[in-house]
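Worked example 3. Consider a protein that binds copper (II) ion.
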Amino acid sequence: MFELFNAVEFLVLLALVFVWGLTGFAANRFKYAACHNGNVKRWSRLARIGIWAGEVLFCLWFVNMLLVLWLFGWLFVWDRLLVVLPVMALPALWVMRTSMPKLKQADSGHPASLVSIVAPIHTMLIGTMLAAYLVMFAVPAIPDATESTIYPGILLACAGLLWWYQQRRVEKIFHRQPGLAARLLRGTGIAAVLLTVALSGYTWSLAASKFPDTMEMVNHDAVDFGGGTAFAHASLHQGGGHSPVTQGNEAVSVAELTGPRTGVPDKRFTLHAKKQQIRLGSGRMIEAWTFNGQFPGPPLVVNKGDLVEVKLVNIDINQGVTLHWHGVDVPNAEDGVAGMTQDAVMPGESHTYRFVVNETGSHWYHSHQLSSIQVQKGLVGPFIILPENQKRSGSTLDLTTFAHDWATPEGTVTTLDAADTLQRKAVKPGTEVRLRLVNASSETKMFTLNGTAYKVAAIDGNDIHEPGALTDSLLRIGGGGRFDVIFTMPETPVTLALYDENTEVGIVFSKDGQGKAEPLKKGTVFDPTSYGTPAPSPFGPLTVFDRQFTLILDQLYVGNYDGKTAQLWAINGEVFPDTPTLMVEKGDIVKTTFVNRSWADHPLHLHGHHLHVLRKNGKPISGSPLVLDTLLIDPGEMYEVAFAANNPGLWMDHCHNLEHASLGMTMHLAYRNVTTPFVLGGKSGNHPE
Ligand SMILES: [Cu+2]
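Given these inputs, the predicted complex is written out as structure tokens:
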């Protein structure tokens, strides 16, 4: 529903600029008519109709914002009310108090003060343009006193200039009526000047948006301490040694924050990144990039407590690759982010990751070099952590399946693993089945299971406490997210499918490996915040937080980003690399509030930490404790989450719709005094997004 208010605002703002443009024109014509006995009545009437239409539209915009305030909350409108409202409300009042009565007087034969008719109307036009600019291209998001004064200030300056200019014009016109040719010339001249200014502004901004050849990933210029103690973050700068370090706190390089470098690993794997043609179920061939020539890559199955060693060898992925352990809280140096925790591994090179796993659950690995391209091309695989000493037993069916979207010349092809057609599996009735559903695509996927009651046993690898039986739920999983679904195989077939997608992709489980697909036709969207039953959680209503952050997600309708013009995705009104850096200290208990005011859903993924969901839309969660690494936030939603800052390093916090991440929606969590020797950009070859 939030999208509707968003659309109304967009359309009303466009209409406002259009209507006040026409009204400004009518007021101008009135000025000429009044000076030389023209059709005063006609232009006065048109100008007054325009004013009424413009004022009604302005009120509509305001009511729309009040409704958003009432239905969604203060954080959804605070910038509109504190920054955008004044730049329209002030001139709107001026027009009603000054222009309108003068137009009426002129209409009934009184001599009109032309300047006080035209200047307010033209100021209102500038106000609406400024408002549209702010909402569409430079959203204030987190309004501050500077923003609430600077824009009305700009408007005031414009009003003064317009007043002075109109005074001069009226005097001039009064003495000499310009002919049509002169007026046209003038109009064209003004339009040409405005166009030149706009075009040079655009060209400059496009060039300025280009990332430098080398840059640091973490933004040191916009640091958010979350209301906690501010401390010297100078040591964050590359090399650390150049800048003073807070006393008693030696700078630590990311490169030192490794897992155990010695010791015999409990599990050892080698992954070869290489180009490989993949044959889908239908016979269609895909030019994929794979680990070990398969899609998804080989399942890495380990036990909690294991020392895991994975050697990554790049055979022929020209841009380089890395391995990121999505959902696993590894030491920072093992996190696999090119340009922040390591350099991309180039063809012919290798890199070894070593870490101890201290958790269980369904996770996955993927490249974090050019991830918006490489994940889509297939550089992904399952990373499954079983409890200590547990094996995948023969009596249960433990099946991981990846939902994926392939970009092909014929358009997007959705698959479950490498199957773009229906799959069938024979399962003996009575078998315990665990399906580990992974969404490796950027788009949110809705899984359904039909033919049996089932439970969602875990989300993002974290167990749900006392999950209840489900039958007709739509399991929405955002990009990067995972659900574990369990059921006991019945006598009759069970169908796993993707809801409402134009595809036959799915799996039919039956006792003889036959049977027709019967996907769920209708269901209700599963809500993890009210599923299962409450259980003790490390964070509750009484938790005292050391730092609290507010992150507002917006779209910028058009913007310039790294030398290209596109629709962008902003955090607190900024796109990477200008997004804020969240600074914490080891041991902090941190609360973060996410507010999604955009048209799209965003699966926000924080590396290296687990997010405990506290509240959704202001209401405490009512089911099982909900611990996530990828939080799917729909338009109009607000989530409050908590995490313990217990894993020092520099960590990405980004949208796992990886196109969104590569168009601005990327930021970082940084611990005090952690530095990185790695950089991004053309020369370094590191491009994490
Ligand atoms: Cu997103």
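Take a moment to read the result before moving on. The pocket of copper (II) ion is lined by residues 569, 600, 602, 655, 657, 660, 665 (CB under 6 Å). The CA atoms of residues 28 and 108 lie 19 Å apart.
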